[in-house]
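Our consortium's second objective concerns turning raw sequence data into structural hypotheses that experimental partners can test. To show how far this objective has progressed, the report includes one record in full. It was chosen at random from the queue rather than selected for favorable results. The single chain below, 404 residues long, was entered without modification.
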Amino acid sequence: MNTETIVIVGAGQAGGWAAQTLRSEGFKGKIVLIGDEPHRPYERPPLSKAVLAGDAHADTTSLVKPEAFDLLDIDWRPKVTATRIDRPARLLHLTQGEPVSYDKLILCNGGRARRLDVPGADLQCVHILRSIEDAAALGAALSAGKHLLIVGGGWIGLEVAATARKKGMQVTVVEALPRLCERTVPPLISDYLLRLHRSHGVEVVLGTGVQQFARTPGGMCATLGDGREIACDAVLVGIGLVANDELAREAGLACEGGVMVDAQCRSSDADILAAGDVAAWHCEWAGRRMRLESWQNAQEQGIAAARAALGIEVNHQPLPWFWSDQYDINLQIFGMPAPSHRVVVRGDPDTHSFVVFFLDEDKVVAALGPNSAKDLRFARRLIERRTSVDPERLADIHVPLAKL
């Protein structure tokens, strides 16, 4: 192992796991971990739920305890941003300090919340949710009796809607597309989510966006694309993520909606790898190149990139897994559902526990459902083993999935 210095850009979950893995695999060289936030590596999912609700302190999101992090013997550079990669010289330029030399460079610099480009979007009461600071700012605006407007009916928006309703707020969700979470789930699940949130008192407006925000004597007002005006006290914009691939692009690396990598997490420069929200690779389960914005992928791809940097053979092709907690519902998704798949429903979609299977011919390729962890564990096995199934037996709740 000739590599002496490995530099990791991004101190989030992917970067944190990459650093830990380098040490656990026996790497004795220098590790430089660069993060533009002041925090040690932490997990983001609790920010929209327990941390936002005030049920958990931000420190509980840390990947490792401070003393364990110190034992990793890492040159940690908080509140520092990488500005340029000098590939011929193998140097990384920073906003503070001298350039850092590297033998291997791992890009884990994730993404940033997409902003609305409309008048008033820069008002102080218009929030995003990506960091611990974002959660603190938004959390301070959540109080019973106030009105929260959420722009974007995706996972972040719906999770925050559930949190805000639990705190006694009035909540309106505005989604530009015709249905909730349209990019990731089929109409059956979109309809279920719509019923779920409306049953908890959330007003959901579909098929229109926001044209502008304006201050009012009592708070603020949002004007929608259909001309409707909504008075509110605070706004959350949750309309997706933009990959932070500018550093890689300027260095001449191949990028397409993220840093393009192979299953070994290598970019078009074999000495530069990428993992997490910034990395785009050909996902065999989806049959296309994509970025996978999930807790699971940030962790597993961070681990894979670290191992690949050490010359260990890796093949990063995990079955995609997503989950979302809303009210007392835990919804999980395994695989990548597509419109071409045959849909088989097990259970009653009008209840809060059922599973939707997606078949390619006679094989399950994806499955999702609320409060069905046990069935989904068996579904995962069916997907990973590419087991042939009888759709009628799959739909029959009296046939144990273990027998399939």
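The partners drew two points from this record. The chain has three domains: 5-112+241-309, 126-237, 328-403. The first strand starts at residue 5 and ends at 9. Both points have been shared with the crystallography group to help prioritize constructs.
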